[in-house]
Design goal:
This protein is of the alpha/beta class and about 425 residues long. It has 4 domains: about 120 residues, Rossmann fold (3-Layer(aba) Sandwich), CATH 3.40.50.12160; about 120 residues, Transcription Regulator spoIIAA (2-Layer Sandwich); about 120 residues, Transcription Regulator spoIIAA; about 55 residues, Nucleic acid-binding proteins (OB fold (Dihydrolipoamide Acetyltransferase, E2P), Beta Barrel). Helix content is about 35%, strand content about 20%. It is built from 12 helices and 19 strands. A 5-stranded mixed beta barrel has the order 15-16-17-19-18. The chain has a 4-stranded parallel sheet with strand order 1-2-3-4, sandwiched between helices. Helix 7 packs parallel to helix 8 and helix 11 packs parallel to helix 12. The structure holds 5'-deoxyadenosine (5AD) and iron/sulfur cluster (SF4). Iron/sulfur cluster binds next to helix 5. 5'-deoxyadenosine binds next to strand 13.
């Protein structure tokens, strides 16, 4: 979602006549789009801002002004700290208000040395105010939903991105058509809780994600569809059936479980048990036996015992994820879990994360190696490090390197996989 927001922010600046630079020292405006999900990400902002100030001062000696801005969730959660720890920041605006950037920049231009912090949860939708976007490559993100009403006890998202909002169907279809016309072959629909999507159609009737996917699948020229991130309790049967009925829907789903222990899931305020989750996966595999699963995991949530952790490992052994993201629990200010008294020692969190990641990598490695000899359609998105090499994505989101000339960029090509490592594949065009 932050990548999508950054692209839209760049779009606003382009519509005002700005151009992207390759180095920070050339930038008349430098914007940091920030993440508050874990402490490490949030702290990084302040060290990056410190470095930006040095560049701003050097530019000042050369007679050049620099505007430094901060966007994203850190602003929503830590506006006072930004004002205190980085008073040189010219403006800061949250993830729901960056459409006001033209107005903010105008105010800065008119009245030098004012600092603007905007952490409003506006009544209007930013999507109504953003300039039209076009595809930047063959794979595009398309935000269809934002915010979250789930309030998992560890998570800041409901406080930083606000309550759930679903964009209307027609608006999404318009953006999708524009992206396809400008070169997108793949759309990745985004939302913090994307499968609880419930936008209105043109008659004002509420429609769900399954309906939207069917509408998108009708669009000429769209070859691939994905959606992320889903909440297990919102995996409805009609959405699961899409994995059987919509050929463009890729056979890969990111469905975070977070923990395999029912006690911990309850303490996390997740609305699913381990068996609910496994039942959904069984149904998905029935709908499409080729589907590969991915998940997020948190280790060391307050109160997590060795037995609880073992249950997480059991889920991994059962599902055999083809990819996953795992994190040590990080205390977030203002969330209920941060106040729980049974916090886990850092040393234990570290040990558990190592054990979990070793196991997850084993399955990822096994899956990647099982692809050798198979032929897959690969969408080539980027040039590789070596000349004559391109990097693409398989239907399973694996990176694949192949020796191909650049005419093949932004195309889908059938590739026979010849080699595999834990993190990527290599192959040849057939
Ligand atoms: N600590 C660790 N991981 C977290 N996540 C969200 N909040 C926290 C936290 N406080 C993880 C979850 C989520 C992913 C985006 O980040 O696994 O699915
Ligand atoms: Fe955070 Fe996801 Fe839970 Fe919402 S569903 S509170 S975004 S972890």
């Amino acid at each position: 979602m932050n990548v999508y927001d950054s692209q839209r922010i760049a779009g606003i600046l382009q519509s005002l006549g700005y151009q992207e630079t390759t180095s920070q020292a050339e930038g008349d405006i430098v914007i940091f789009n920030t993440c508050h999900i874990r402490e490490k990400a949030a702290e990084k902002v302040f060290s990056d801002l410190g470095r930006a100030l040095l560049i701003k001062n050097e530019r000042k000696e050369q007679g050049k002004d620099t505007i430094i801005g901060v966007c994203g969730c850190v602003v929503q959660a830590e506006d006072e700290q930004i004002a205190k720890r980085a008073p040189f920041v010219d403006f800061a605006t949250g993830p729901l208000t960056y459409h006001r950037l033209p107005e903010i920049l105008e105010r800065i231009a008119r009245k030098k040395n004012i600092s603007i912090i905007d952490t409003d949860f506006p009544a209007e939708s930013k999507f109504d105010y953003l300039p039209e976007n076009h595809s930047l490559g063959a794979c595009s993100y398309l935000a269809i939903q934002e915010g979250c009403n789930n309030f998992c006890t560890y998570c800041v998202v409901p406080y930083t991105r606000g309550v759930e909002y679903s964009r209307p169907i027609e608006e999404i279809l318009k953006e999708a058509k524009r992206l396809i016309q400008s070169g997108s072959l793949e759309l990745n629909l985004l939302g913090q809780n994307v499968n609880s999507y419930h936008g209105e159609d043109k008659f004002g009737k509420e429609r769900n994600l399954a309906y939207l996917l069917h509408c998108l699948a009708e669009l000429d020229g769209l070859k691939r569809l994905r959606y992320t991130t889903s909440y297990p309790a919102d995996m409805t049967d009609d959405l699961i059936a899409c994995h059987k009925d919509i050929p463009q829907l890729m056979p890969y789903l990111h469905l975070p479980i977070q923990s395999g222990s029912d006690t911990i899931l309850k303490a996390m305020n997740r609305r699913h048990s381990k068996s609910d989750y496994l039942r959904i996966i069984d149904k998905l595999k029935q709908a499409n036996p080729q589907i590969g699963m991915s998940s997020d995991f948190i280790v060391g949530f307050p109160g997590e015992t060795d037995k609880d952790f073992q249950e997480t490992l059991e889920v991994v052994n059962h599902v055999k994820y083809i990819q996953a993201f795992s994190f040590k629990y990080s205390k977030r200010p203002g969330t209920p879990a941060a106040l729980m008294s049974n916090q886990i020692e850092e040393k234990v969190k570290k040990e558990r994360l190592e054990i979990l990641q070793t196991l997850l990598f084993e399955y990822q490695d096994k899956f990647n190696r099982s692809c050798v000899g198979k032929t897959m359609p690969v969408l080539f998105e980027n040039k590789g490090r070596h000349t004559g090499q391109l990097i693409g994505r398989t239907p399973y989101m694996q990176n694949l390197h192949a020796s191909l000339d650049k005419e093949n960029l932004n195309k889908i090509i059938n590739i026979k996989v010849t080699e595999a490592t834990t993190n990527s594949l290599s192959g040849e065009a057939i």
